[in-house]
Amino acid sequence: AKVSIVGTGMQTAPGYASRMFRTLADEGINIELITTAEIRITCIVNEKQVAEAVRALHRAFDLEKVA
Fold first, then answer.
1. Distances (CA, A) of 43 to 17, 31, 47, 64, 67
2. 47 lies in which domain range?
3. What is the CATH number of the domain that holds 14?
4. Which of 1, 29, 51, 62 shows the greatest Cβ crowding within 10 Å of its Cβ?
5. How many CB atoms within 10 Å of residue 41?
6. How many alpha carbons fall within 13 Å on the CB side of residue 11?
């Protein structure tokens, strides 16, 4: 399953990839594949862990309150 972070701020601010990878690793979620574009980082994770991955990334990037 794909999980992505997307944003124009990634073009100018370092650290987004490392925060994403560390967050998933800390949750015990294995990254099977990584792809990148100018404003997007996508990881392929096990389908059984996708909901957990999304919740963890929302917490890591302070997106829990976004509607």
1. 10, 6, 12, 20, 23
2. 2-60
3. 3.30.2130.10
4. 29
5. 19
6. 5
